[in-house]
Amino acid sequence: MASVLVFQGTVIHSIDSETLKILDNATLVVTDGRITALHKSTNDLPSDSFPPNASIHRLPPHDFLIPGFVDTHNHAPQWPMRGLGQGLHILDWLNEITFPVEARFADPAYATSIYEHTVEDFLRQGITTASYYSSRHREGTKILAEICHRKGQRAFVGKCNMDRNAPDYIQEESASVSLRETEECIQHIRGLSKNDHQEHLVKPVVTPRFAISCTPELLQGLGEIVKRDDALAIQTHFNEAQQEIDATTELFPQFAGSEADLYESYGLLNARSILAHCTIMTDYEKERIHSLDCGVAHCPIANMTVGGGFMVAPVRDFLRRGIKVGLGTDSGGGWASGMLAVMRQAMIASNAREVLSEGKDKALSFEETFYLATLGGAKVLCLEDRIGNFQVGKEFDAVWVTTTTGLQSAMTPREDGDSPRRVFEKYIMTGDDRNVAQVYVRGRKVAGTR
Ligand code: GUN
Ligand code: FE
């Protein structure tokens, strides 16, 4: 018999970048993990609308359902170093803080113990989908994918490729070893789900760390893997900081400073490419990534803490041009473990951009920011047919948010007479994981205290 979940109460989701729908008396029906009905009003439903086995959840007034957050850029092995090395420039931050931490993931026991907490922590915050960089270690990468699979998080997991310009203790032995291990991880991840009738929740992603840490031979080999496989996603860091751009230009002078040309020439740019940061972009590069349909993982916390000062990605211009944009925690690159912090910083960054552009690039609205954290991210990951909002036919990835009138959480207390919109805004701007009652991925409860 089909499993049926019914939720009655306030449902909030984005229809597009500017349209936020708040249905304050809705009924949402989930059958075997998929949304099969969304009634705007609960009042006109006949009492026998649901099968007898349906599990019915009535949300208290001022609680609400939102789509699960989509984190388009997350370094899982950096979870235990979040917040460290603030203010360092990117290459110094990698050498001083990041590589010593990632090196510890050579030990499968360490990887297992940390990744258990990592995945649980992101789920607990309502991140139902994440695109993860693992460390460069094969076993650790498999462990991360297995943990996502077991805990039920929707995820992309990529073994990080890095065969040069890193200390010996973390650099890969050669391009050929890196490529062989990458293929092994891809196969392993695809073998995790035994159910071939359903799209796999955990998928592989090709993950060259960035051009600086990859030899041309490695980039070439990764491009060949991508060319042979039109289901594979790709992720890398792209135009993150001036120090990184200068070093890349020195290593690859033939591309004259264009990372778009660089990655495209190796066959790494297509509609499944997730480009992290994109802070310093020429019009030419914006035009290239748009015509190649690449997505941008905007990581405003990382951009303003590690990496090189105060970098503000031109998100308004990306949206104006129709470039896909989502948000990323970046995990260790900054201090965020949750998307609420990233959304707040995205708004701050966009205010800065408005000033820096002398008013030309208007700041992001609240609606747009929520869109980026949900449906926008789903588009970047090419998952918009499955997740991102509560359109009938999509899979049910959701957060049940609860709110209080007192001091039980950090969130601005709700008050009598607050509209659903007002409570929602209080949650986004001041809430935290204490407001997460339940988290669902494809209809399965994966986190929550209720
Ligand atoms: N560029 C190359 N590696 C990294 C990383 O781990 N984090 C960030 N923010 N940028 C990078
Ligand atoms: Fe990153």
Provide a short characterization of the protein structure:
This protein has 450 residues and is of the alpha/beta class.
SSE topology sketch:
Blueprint: E1 4-14, E2 20-31, E3 34-39, E4 55-58, E5 64-67, E6 69-75, H1 90-103, H2 108-124, E7 127-133, H3 138-151, E8 154-158, E9 160-161, H4 175-190, E10 202-208, H5 216-227, E11 233-238, H6 242-251, H7 259-265, E12 273-277, H8 283-291, E13 295-298, H9 300-303, H10 315-321, E14 324-327, H11 339-356, H12 366-380, E15 398-401, H13 420-430, E16 436-441, E17 444-447
Parallel strand pairs: 1-4, 1-5, 6-7, 7-8, 8-10, 9-10, 10-11, 11-12, 12-13, 13-14
Antiparallel strand pairs: 1-2, 2-3, 5-15, 15-16, 16-17
The protein binds guanine (GUN) and fe (iii) ion.
Folded structure, characterized:
This protein is of the alpha/beta class and 450 residues long. The chain is built from 13 helices and 17 strands. Strands 6, 7, 8, 9, 10, 11, 12, 13 and 14 form a nine-stranded parallel β-sheet that branches. Strands 1, 2, 3, 4, 5, 15, 16 and 17 form an eight-stranded mixed β-sheet that branches. β1 and β2 form a beta hairpin. α3 runs parallel beside α4 and α4 runs parallel beside α5. 52% of the residues are buried. The site of fe (iii) ion (FE) has 6 residues, from β6. The site of guanine has 12 residues, from α1.
